[in-house]
Design a protein that fits this description.
heterodimer, A: 548 residues, alpha+beta, Arc Repressor Mutant, subunit A, 3 domains, nine-stranded mixed β-sheet, three-stranded antiparallel β-sheet, 16 strands, 17% strand, disordered N terminus, B: 526 residues, alpha/beta, Amidase signature (AS) enzymes, two-stranded antiparallel sheet, 39% helix, ATP binding (chain B), nucleotide-binding (chain B)
C-alpha cells in the first residue's frame, strides 16, 4: 500500500506541463471576413477519383470570457493588464477552507447569452467538479456545469457571402448543444533556460461561458463566419468582449471527414487558434490532412492537435495524448442554481438577489441579425451591404451617423462607406474608430456633392485629401485646390467643342445612332476638367454639338 | 491553581459557562475572577496535562493579549458578549488568522492561514480567548485521534481519579480519546478550556465527546458556516461544539449560527434564546428508539444505560416507542464511497505549489506533485484518495458514487419518515462501548475502526440532522458512557431541551485529577 502511494498519482492522469504562449498585444489580428483565405465552394478536395466526394464535418467549442468586474466564484477583480498574481483571492489560490460564492452578474451574462442564442434556459442548473492536475489549476479541479448546464438547445443563425461574385448573403444556422458556466484557469509561463514554470493566477477563476456547438459546419469559412457572428452577438450583449487575440474568446474545433450518408469519421480536436482567420486556415488544413490520410489508406487518430500559425499546419499535442478521466463529481459547496421569473419569486427570497429571466430578456439589445434587417429596410440598402456594415466593428454606427447628418440619400452614403472609407481603412490596417475622416466630415462632403458644389469625381479626390488633412474640412479643400463644380456655360462650351473636334470617329458613331458613345466624350471632358465639370450641363452641350 | 475553573463550576454544577447566573461568565463580569487570571490558569492546566497531547499549538502570548483586552472591557463594564474573556480552543482544521493550522498533517505543517474561519471569528468577536489548536486524526480522517502526525491524544479519564483511586488499572496502556476531534474533547474534559470547536463528518465531534465525557453537539447541516473549516466531506461536514454542559452548547450554537455569505450552503435558523430555561413538558415529547441500533458489538454496559435513560424518559411522561430505520445498516459502506470520493477531490489542491509542504524532488511538475503528496499525506489519507479516485472513474461512477447517493437518500428518508410519524427525538448510544485502550484500538487499521466506531453517529450526517451526545455514566473501568439524541432538521432547540433534561437526570460525575481535590478546597469560596 505504501509503495503504491507514489503510484496513485499516476493513476489519475497527470498531464505534462504545456507551454501556453503569452499573446503579444501589438500583434494586429485582422478580423475581416474578406480576408478569409478559403471558401466553401473551393473546399479542400482530394483530386483522386472517389465517389461520392468526402466532406468535412466541423463542430466548435467556444470559451467566452465573461465581461464582469469580478470573478465567477470570488470577489477578485477581472483585469488583463495587472501585475502577475495581483488579482488573486484566497479562493482563487485554493487556500484550504475557502468556498465558492457564485457571482450573480456572471449568471445574468450566461442567461442573456443563452436567450440571444435562442436557447432553452434551465431554471435549475448544477455545478460539477472536473479534476485534473495542472499547475495553473490550483484546486486540482475546475468547477463547471457538466450534468445540467444553464442553457441548452440553442440556434446560432449566421450568414456569409457567397455566389460567383461573393456578394450573395447565404444564411445558415448551427445548433448550440449547451452553454455552461465554468472557471477559467491561470497561466503558466515556462522558462526553458532556468527550467522553471511561473504561474500567474490573475486569470484563475474568471467566469467563462463554454458554448458547445453541434457539428453543423463543413469548412473553415463557415466556422469563421459563425464565430464572427457569435462575436458580434456577444459584443452587442456586452457579455464578452470577444477579443480572440487576448484570449477573451477561445475556439477549439472538432474536425472529421466522411462521405455523405456514411457515419461520421474519427475526429480530431484542433486547439491553439487565436484569430478567426487562423480558425478558417486550421480547419481547412485539418480537413485536407484527414482526407489525404484516408485516401492513402491511413487512419485518423482521435487526438488533440495544435495549429501552428507560422506553417499553417496542425501538429499533435504531445501532452494531450491519452484519454483523460476527469472524474466528474457534483460540486458540494454550491446549491443548485435556481432562476426565477418576476412575480414568482418564492417568499423569503429577495428578488434583487436572484436572477429573473424575464428581466434579463427585457434588457436584450438589438442583435446583429435584426440590425442588418433594419438597415436594409430603413435605408433601402443591399443585404450584402448591411452584412458588411454590421460585421465591421463600428461601421454601421458610422454609416448611421453619416446618414443622419447629411442630405444625401442613404443609398448614396452606403457606396462611400463600403468603398471609399473601407478601402482606405483596409489599406492602412485601421479600425473604423481610427478613421481619419470622421462621420461628420464625410457627411459635410456628401452635402456639398448633393448641393452641386462638387462633382462626384472631384468629391473622391476631396475625400483622399481629407484623409491626409482631416483638420481642413471638405469646403476648405475644395476652395484651396479649386475642386469646385465647373458650371460656367461658356467655359464648358469651349472645352466640349475641343473634345468634339478631336474625336471625329466618335461623333460619327453618335450621329449614326450609337448614343452610348456620348459617354466616352463625357469622360474626355471630365478628364480635361479633372472631373470637375457639371455632368448635366456637359451632357446637354455634347448632345447639342453632336446632333447636327 | 487550576482549581479556579473547577471550583467555579462546583459552585453551580448545573449551570453553564454563560448562562444567567453562570459561574465563569458572571464571575468575570462581577470581577470575582479576572480574564487574565482565568487565561493563566487554563494555560497552566494545559501545561499540566500536556501528556494528553490535546493541543498541537498553544497560543500563549496571543491568548494573554486577548485576555488583557477582555479584562479591560470587563472592567469598563462593556463586555462584547456573553463569552467575553472565556477561554476556548479550536480543532486544528479550522483556519485561524496568523496561527498555524496543520490538520495534524505534514502537508500543512507550518501553514498559517491569512483568515479566520467564520465560526472562529464569531467567537473572537464575542471576546472569547483563543488558547490554541487541538489535535486530531490527520485531515479529520479517523475515529481515535491516533492517526495524527503529532502523535495520539490520550483520554483524560485514563488519568482521572474516582473515589480516591485511579480509574484505570492498565499499567502503561491508556484509553484513546476518540476522534477525530479527540484533542478538542480531551481539552474540554481536562478542564483546560470551557468550549472547543470540533468538526463532525461522520461522528467526529460526538464520538470523542462521548468517550471523553463531554457534551458534543453536531448542529443541523447549514446552520453553522463551514467557511474556514478545511473540508473532509463538504456535504456532511458540520462544525461541532464541545462543552461541559448542554446549556453551554446552546449558548455557543446561538452565537455561531446564521447564514454566511461566504458559505452558500448556510441557511437561516431559528433563534435559541432562552431555549433551555423553559420547563420542558416531557408529556409532549415522543422519543424514538431505533431497533436497528441494537447493533452487534454494543457493550452490555452501554445497552443498560440506554435502557435506563429510556425508562427515565418514560417515567417522566414522555412517550417512548421503538422505531425502524431499515437502511441504517448500509450507511457505513455508503459513507465510505462518498467520503473517499470527496476526499480525493478535496485533497487535489495539496500539490505543494501555493502553500504547504513542497518536496525537493523537482525533476518535473509531475514528479514534484507525486513526491509532495507522498511525503505530505499519511497512509490513511492516501488510501482514501486512491479509493475515491477509483470510485469517480467514468466507468465506476454510476456503480459507486451514484448508488451511494441513492442509498444516502434512502437513509435520509428513513429519518424523515420517523420524524413525520410524530417522533421528536431519537435516543441511541453514541458509541458501541466506552473508550478502548490504545493498544487494543491500534490492532485494527483506521478504516476498520472508522467502520466500527461511526455506526451510530454517521447516518445522522447522511441526513444532515442535528444530534448531541451527552455523557450519562461511568463504566466499570471508570470511563464515560454517553448517549446520543437525534433531532429532526432545524429542531436543534428541541433537541437541546431534551438533552438538558437528560443531563440533569443522570448526574454525570465531574472529572477529578490527582491534586484537584485539595486545590478545590482552597478556592471553594471564590
Amino acid at each position: 500500500m505504501a509503495a503504491a502511494s507514489a503510484g496513485f498519482i499516476c493513476n489519475v492522469n497527470v498531464p505534462k506541463p504545456v507551454v501556453i504562449k503569452l499573446f503579444s498585444l501589438n500583434h494586429v489580428i485582422k478580423r475581416r471576413l474578406s480576408t478569409s483565405v478559403t471558401r466553401c465552394q473551393s473546399q479542400p478536395q482530394v483530386k483522386k477519383r472517389s465517389c461520392p466526394q468526402m466532406v468535412g464535418v466541423v463542430g466548435l467549442e467556444v470559451h467566452a470570457q465573461i465581461n464582469s468586474t469580478s470573478k465567477l466564484f470570488s470577489g477578485s477583480q477581472v483585469s488583463f493588464s495587472s501585475p502577475p498574481n495581483s488579482r488573486v483571492s484566497y479562493f482563487d489560490a485554493s487556500l484550504p477552507g475557502t468556498l465558492p460564492v457564485l457571482n450573480r452578474r456572471c449568471v445574468e451574462a450566461a442567461v442573456m447569452t443563452g436567450l440571444a442564442l435562442n436557447c432553452t434556459i434551465n431554471m435549475k442548473s448544477l455545478f460539477d467538479r472536473k479534476h485534473y492536475f495542472y499547475a495553473d489549476m490550483p484546486a486540482g479541479y475546475q468547477i463547471t456545469q457538466q450534468r445540467l448546464p444553464i442553457a441548452v438547445s440553442g440556434l446560432l443563425i449566421y450568414s456569409h457571402l457567397g455566389g460567383p461574385k461573393r456578394n450573395q448573403v447565404i444564411s445558415k444556422s448551427i445548433r448550440i448543444k449547451q452553454i455552461q458556466l465554468e472557471q477559467d484557469s491561470g497561466k503558466s509561463l515556462h522558462d526553458e533556460h532556468q527550467s522553471q514554470t511561473l504561474i500567474d493566477l490573475n486569470r484563475a477563476g474568471v467566469g467563462l461561458m463554454e458554448l458547445v456547438m453541434e457539428p453543423d459546419m463543413s469548412c473553415g469559412e463557415e466556422a469563421a463566419a459563425a464565430v464572427r457572428e457569435l462575436q458580434l452577438i456577444l459584443q452587442a450583449l456586452g457579455t464578452c468582449q470577444g477579443n480572440m487575440s487576448e484570449g477573451q474568446l477561445r475556439v477549439d474545433a472538432n474536425v472529421s471527414v466522411h462521405r455523405p450518408g456514411e457515419p461520421l469519421g474519427v475526429r480530431t480536436e484542433v486547439k491553439n487558434i487565436n484569430s478567426i482567420r487562423h480558425l478558417a486556415r486550421a480547419i481547412d488544413h485539418e480537413i485536407q490532412r484527414q482526407m489525404e490520410l484516408l485516401e492513402q489508406g491511413g487512419v485518423v487518430q482521435n487526438e488533440t492537435r495544435a495549429f501552428d500559425q507560422k506553417t499553417g499546419l496542425t501538429i499533435p499535442m504531445r501532452d494531450k495524448e491519452g484519454l483523460q478521466d476527469y472524474r466528474f463529481m457534483p460540486e458540494p459547496n454550491l446549491p443548485p442554481l435556481l432562476l426565477y421569473v418576476s412575480g414568482r419569486v418564492p417568499a423569503g427570497l429577495d428578488p434583487s438577489q436572484v436572477v429573473l429571466v424575464d428581466r434579463v430578456k427585457a434588457l436584450l439589445p438589438e442583435l446583429p441579425g435584426v440590425r442588418r434587417e433594419r438597415l436594409v429596410e430603413e435605408y433601402g440598402i443591399l443585404p450584402e451591404h448591411s452584412y458588411t456594415l454590421v460585421n465591421e466593428d463600428g461601421l454601421a454606427d458610422y454609416f448611421e451617423t453619416v446618414v443622419k447628418a447629411t442630405k444625401a440619400e442613404p443609398r448614396k452614403v452606403i457606396g462611400w462607406v463600403v468603398k471609399e472609407l473601407l478601402s482606405n481603412l483596409n489599406q492602412q490596417n485601421l479600425k473604423v474608430n481610427q478613421s481619419l475622416v470622421a462621420a461628420r466630415a464625410l457627411a459635410e462632403l456628401l452635402d456639398l456633392l448633393e448641393t452641386g458644389h462638387v462633382s462626384s469625381t472631384a468629391a473622391k479626390v476631396v475625400f483622399q485629401e481629407l484623409w491626409k488633412n482631416p483638420e481642413k474640412g471638405a469646403e476648405k479643400i475644395i476652395q484651396e485646390q479649386n475642386l469646385g463644380l465647373m458650371s460656367d456655360a461658356a467655359t464648358l462650351q469651349i472645352i466640349c467643342q475641343k473634345v468634339v473636334e478631336s474625336h471625329p470617329e466618335e461623333v460619327k458613331a453618335i450621329q449614326n445612332g450609337n448614343h452610348k458613345v456620348l459617354n466616352k466624350l463625357m469622360g474626355q471632358v471630365q478628364k480635361e476638367t479633372k472631373g470637375r465639370a457639371d455632368p448635366v450641363q456637359v451632357r446637354a452641350i455634347l448632345q447639342e454639338l453632336t446632333s447636327s | 491553581t487550576q482549581a479556579g475553573i473547577t471550583a467555579l463550576r462546583a459552585a453551580e454544577p448545573l449551570k453553564g459557562l454563560g448562562w444567567p447566573g453562570n459561574p465563569v461568565s458572571v464571575a468575570l463580569r462581577e470581577g470575582r475572577v479576572s480574564a487574565t487570571d482565568l487565561c493563566r490558569k487554563c494555560l497552566q492546566r494545559i501545561r499540566e496535562t500536556h501528556y494528553l497531547n490535546a493541543y498541537i499549538s498553544v497560543t500563549e502570548e496571543l491568548a494573554m493579549q486577548q485576555a488583557e483586552e477582555a479584562e479591560l472591557r470587563l472592567l469598563r463594564g462593556e463586555p462584547r458578549g456573553i463569552l467575553d474573556g472565556v477561554p476556548f480552543s479550536v480543532k486544528d482544521n479550522f483556519c485561524t488568522q496568523g496561527v498555524e493550522t496543520t490538520c495534524a498533517s505534514l502537508m500543512l505543517k507550518g501553514y498559517t492561514p491569512p483568515f479566520n474561519a467564520t465560526v472562529v471569528q464569531k467567537l473572537l468577536d464575542q471576546g472569547a480567548v483563543l488558547l490554541g489548536k487541538t489535535n486530531l486524526d490527520e485531515f479529520a480522517m479517523g475515529s481515535g485521534s491516533t492517526d495524527s502526525s503529532f502523535g495520539p491524544v490520550r483520554n483524560p479519564w485514563s488519568e482521572a481519579v474516582t473515589g480516591g483511586r485511579s480509574s484505570m488499572e492498565l499499567g502503561s496502556d491508556w484509553a484513546i480519546a476518540g476522534g477525530s476531534s479527540g484533542g478538542s474533547a480531551a481539552a474540554v474534559a481536562s478542564l483546560s478550556c470551557y468550549l472547543s470547536l470540533g468538526s463532525d463528518t461522520g461522528g467526529s465531534t460526538r464520538n470523542p465527546g462521548a468517550l471523553c465525557g463531554v457534551v458534543a453537539l453536531k448542529p443541523t447541516y447549514g446552520v453553522l458556516s463551514r467557511h474556514g473549516l478545511i473540508p473532509l466531506v463538504n456535504s456532511m461536514d458540520v462544525p461541532g461544539i464541545l462543552t461541559r454542559r448542554v446549556c453551554d452548547a446552546a449558548i455557543v450554537l446561538d452565537i455561531l449560527r446564521g447564514p454566511d455569505e461566504r458559505d452558500s450552503t448556510t441557511v437561516p435558523s431559528p433563534a435559541l434564546d432562552c431555549a433551555l430555561t423553559e420547563e420542558l413538558d416531557l408529556t409532549r415529547i415522543t422519543v424514538g428508539i431505533p431497533q436497528e441500533y441494537h447493533a452487534p458489538g454494543l457493550s452490555p454496559e452501554t445497552a443498560r444505560q440506554w435502557e435506563r435513560v429510556a425508562a427515565a424518559l418514560a417515567a417522566a411522561g414522555a412517550r417512548v416507542r421503538e422505531v425502524s430505520l431499515p437502511h441504517t445498516q448500509h450507511s457505513i459502506v455508503c459513507y465510505h464511497v462518498l467520503c473517499c470520493s470527496e476526499v480525493a477531490s478535496n485533497m487535489a489542491r495539496f500539490d505543494g505549489l501555493e502553500y504547504g509542504h513542497r518536496s525537493s524532488v523537482e525533476t518535473s511538475t509531475d514528479a514534484l506533485y507525486a513526491a509532495t503528496r507522498h511525503e505530505g499525506f499519511n497512509d490513511v489519507v492516501r488510501r482514501r484518495i486512491l479509493a475515491g479516485n477509483y470510485f469517480l472513474l467514468k466507468q465506476n461512477y454510476e456503480r459507486y458514487f451514484v448508488k451511494a447517493q441513492q442509498v444516502r437518500r434512502l437513509i435520509a428518508d428513513d429519518f424523515s419518515r420517523v420524524f413525520c410519524s410524530g417522533v421528536d427525538v431519537l435516543l441511541t448510544p453514541t458509541t458501541l462501548c466506552d473508550a478502548p485502550t490504545y493498544t487494543h484500538f491500534t490492532q485494527e487499521d483506521n478504516r476498520t475502526r472508522s467502520t466500527q466506531e461511526d455506526v451510530f453517529t454517521q447516518p445522522v450526517n447522511m441526513a444532515g440532522l442535528p444530534a448531541v451526545s451527552v455523557p450519562v455514566a461511568l463504566s466499570a473501568r471508570g470511563l464515560p458512557i454517553s448517549l446520543q439524541l437525534i433531532g429532526s432538521k432545524m429542531q436543534d432547540k428541541k433537541l437541546l431541551s431534551v438533552a438538558h433534561w437528560l443531563e440533569q437526570q443522570v448526574d454525570f460525575p465531574q472529572i477529578c485529577f490527582r491534586g484537584d481535590d485539595e486545590a478545590r478546597e482552597r478556592t471553594q469560596g471564590v
